[in-house]
């Protein structure tokens, strides 16, 4: 058997492209604002994680350009050896301060932050206990570790307690979960997770990729939202959502950061992310602190869309954040609905199994602080028309 036979036999995407309903890899020809240019058309962007609308902000662009002028376009080396700059270290100090931890460590991507951290910390005869709907980067990180990975039902605290109770009392345990779940839009039950972690002598790691900049009184994330920052051992975040760049980080106690810094293969064997990205993230953190009105506007928009989608008759599941899923059930139904919305000038994305459980396919909508009321009304009109055409509402 030829190794590439599987490639030759993979025809699903060819059929989708031929049928005109392939929903992925659309090339954007503009900055990712509330409106984008896609294949020669202006569309309302409804699938972005650019929650605060900072990806095209002048302050971030100027900071990135200034960093390029000083440091060049790339580091051409691992931070472990020759790729470390003063901007990387300045950003780490600022991140630790921002989320309320002793120290932080920056990685080239959010996925690498999870891969490097979890695989470094969870060893043989130790356990990574995960929510069944955790992000793929957490699942892959657990596979790379030498430990075992029991899971619990999504946000089900009885299931988590049962899972923890079955583990050896003497073994090391790390409970890992999303702060805001990226498809469902719901929030982890952090208070009860902390309570169970203490009861069963487990450590706690939160992936707050979608909470940072959005959750909490000052945008410091899900831990701030629950006033439990001190109780969480490791906070992980990304720069590709509210912070509008690329990269990821963890924040924790100094001893944990020092250990991961010297044991995380994803850090040691990857080139450092460009200084221009570090500069733009620093600029984004400044704006988050100085312009709370952005976050206020984001929540006004989110509350309106939650209310209106339900009024129209859509099932939005258990979402409580600016991520609002429109649950349609069947995989192909979600793909076709997305195509019809695209034809009406709405750029959004279908989420199908195995990214979500079978029969739970959805249209993932997410919102920016820079969406206008006119944008939102156009979105609601398009969804209403398509939903009625397809018999969903």
Main attributes of the structure:
Aspartate Aminotransferase, domain 1; seven-stranded mixed β-sheet; alpha/beta; 393 residues; 13 strands; 2 domains; Aspartate Aminotransferase, domain 2
Write the layout of secondary structure elements.
Elements: H1 5-8, H2 12-19, E1 35-38, E2 41-45, H3 58-71, H4 86-99, E3 103-107, H5 110-121, E4 127-131, H6 136-144, E5 151-152, H7 157-165, E6 173-178, H8 190-199, E7 203-207, H9 222-225, E8 234-238, E9 248-252, H10 254-261, H11 265-268, H12 275-290, H13 292-312, E10 323-329, H14 331-343, E11 346-347, E12 349-351, E13 361-366, H15 373-389
Parallel strand pairs: 2-11, 4-5, 4-6, 6-7, 7-8
Antiparallel strand pairs: 1-2, 3-9, 8-9, 10-13, 12-13
Number of contiguous helices: 15
Low-confidence stretches: none
Give the termini separation.
49 Å
What is the CATH superfamily label of the largest domain? Type I PLP-dependent aspartate aminotransferase-like (Major domain)
Helix-strand sequence: HHEEHHEHEHEHEHEHEEHHHHEHEEEH
Strand order of the largest sheet: 3-9-8-7-6-4-5
Oligomer: single chain
Largest sheet geometry:
7 strands, mixed
CATH topology of the largest domain: Aspartate Aminotransferase, domain 2
General shape: globular
Radius of gyration: 21 Å
Whole-number mean pLDDT: 96
User: What is the level 1 CATH name of the largest domain?
Assistant: Alpha Beta
Helix content: 40-55%
What fraction strand?
A: 15-25%
Q: What number of structural domains do the residues give?
A: 2
What is the number of beta strands?
A: 13
Task: Look at the helices and sheets and give the structural class.
Answer: alpha/beta
CATH architecture of the largest domain: 3-Layer(aba) Sandwich
